[in-house]
Amino acid sequence: MIESPNETDETLRKKMRQQLEKSGISTAVRKMVRKICDSRDDVDEVNPDEVITEVYRRGLMNTFMENLDKEVANKETLGQLKNSDDSDHDSDILAERWKDWGSGKHDESSSDNDLIQKTLRKSGKYYLKMEIRGGKAFLDHLLDESRSDDVASENSMNVKSEFRAKLVLHVFYKSHRFTAKPVECRCDPDFKDVFLIDIGRFDHRDGPEHTVCVGILQVSLSLVPVPHERISESTYLDKVNHAGASHEDRERSFIAMVKRWWKEYIEIRADHQLRLIRLFAYDEKMVARPVMSFVKQIQLDDSLATPFHAGWFVSLLPLNGNQNTNCSGTIGYKVLPGIQNGIGGCLLSERWQTVETTVISKSGTVEDHAVLLTSLMLSFGLDAYVALGTKRGKGSWAWTVTLSENQEPTFWESTTGDYYDHYSYPEGYIGATRELPQEIEEKLAKNKVYNFLTISCIFNDKELYANIQPTISVDFVDWDIGNTSKWKPLKYIDKTTTYSPLCLIPPSLNWDFIGKKLEFQLKNLLTFARKEQSLGTKWDDFLPPFMGQHLSREELEVSTGGKEFKDHFKTVALKSLPPGYDFRAHTFNSQTVEAYRLFESALREPLAEGIIFVRGEDVKHSLKVKIFPYPEDVPSIRFMLACRYISTS
């Protein structure tokens, strides 16, 4: 809770009560208490701790804290504006906070509006005020709407239900990221938000066209402050039409080239048309695009220091959807205009995301993960490719391959952050009966750990290489992609309008505060859980700093690929342990900042459950949370549970 030296305790309590009433949490708690009381014969039997536990379980405390944090932050922002002489800094603050002011979360007074306009004019910058007023005809969510209505009828309390599907609107423009508040999935979603986007020098070419409608978004756009000079509508439309005509010409030329390439490819060997070749894929707007166009180099800064950090960062993004296990390259294709069925067409069941969509949604399929990691590897100067093949137990799969100067491949599993140097059988030993040298046997044994089976093609933003060797087994493939008798190249030159480069933004949230709050909430949940079993809880304040060091070492290992970092925690823990005491500890890694979900995952671990509900004499628990933020505010959350006790069994 944030303390203010200028306010009395009574004022703070009053503000908290107002926030509880405003958010509807107070009403929800009253209904919850009434329901608990009605279920008991004697009201005096109701334990206050039971009510508090239920408040945490339903996430009401998290909701209250989040609302309070936002209100305090926006009041601080207005104070900064009123006392600041830095106009550039002021305009950046406005860009961050305009959403909260304009979306109805905070009342806008005329003085606040005057202050905003004055600050913007002083900065000399132009901003695009984007006001979202609602949505219509989101037909994909008709079923979600009926389900939400069913849930709402069952749960009349004004609380968030984890069973209700939500729609979230993301706005992506250059280095700006905005996220609207979640709304219930409906055919006509009730989006209400305002964003202020620093557009700098506005150019109509700064984004791709949207050709497929997933719904109608009611948006009001305006420039603030209003510019004195304006571009005529006819001039703007001429530029757009000219760009569209040029794009169509380039598309026809590329399709003609692909048809010739495909004919040559399937003539080499009859089974080639059964291999997992993708020349085109549907994007999130159901537009068929060359797969090479999904990969693009990304503007890097210090937020990702090495390719190993990039691999771990991508693995932190949740994996979406069931992967297609069909390994045939021609079954299930949709005929594209001007392309015969099976010529690297698009599977109807698959949709790939652009790198921008994967970044802003912070999730994607295995192909999306591989495309993003390959894009990052290219930005580090590596010779990187998306690999399409199969994996044991997964069916068709995608991963990232980087090639050394000697064409030696390193495989990167983009969904886990793992990597290894892959070795193929030496050419002289393929099909031979003589034994392999032990050194080569050991290298080949590593391949089996990662379960990659076949490789059909690899591609990046400039070229695609199709495997035309007799075998597609990763253990026997020759990775010399410059050898045209083993790999068939398809060059791709993206001559479309040059867009602004995608840049990953450094973490901006106060993760230290979030970590401390999460630690506090987890301690409360553990205390309440033990109390339900008539167990007391005492906390050990000595170990947590050393537990933090251990968690940092774990993160350092997975994010850098290092495995030789010495762990001193066990030595420190045992040294601090009095004679006759036992000690247990367990660590977790997660991406959720919801304490209840994190605690639930701990209860599902037998070792952690044993630590939480340990019985004995002089039991003391220790708990430490460490959050390691990555670009786009993607967190790697680690927490450690430990206890010391004298066993009585």
From TrEMBL:
Pfam families registered for this protein in UniProt: CEP76-C2, CEP76_C, CEPT76_peptidase
Domain CEP76 C2, chain residue ranges per copy: 123-201
Keywords: Cytoplasm
Subcellular localization, as worded in the UniProt entry: Cytoplasm, Cytoskeleton, Microtubule organizing center, Centrosome
Annotated ranges, domain CEP76/DRC7 peptidase-like: 351-490
GO CC annotation terms, alphabetical: centrosome
Entry annotated with the keyword Phosphoprotein: no
Domain Centrosomal protein of 76 kDa C-terminal: 515-645
Domain of life where this protein originates: Eukaryota
PANTHER family (alphabetical): CENTROSOMAL PROTEIN OF 76 KDA
Protein name: Centrosomal protein of 76 kDa
Species of the source: Orchesella cincta (Springtail)
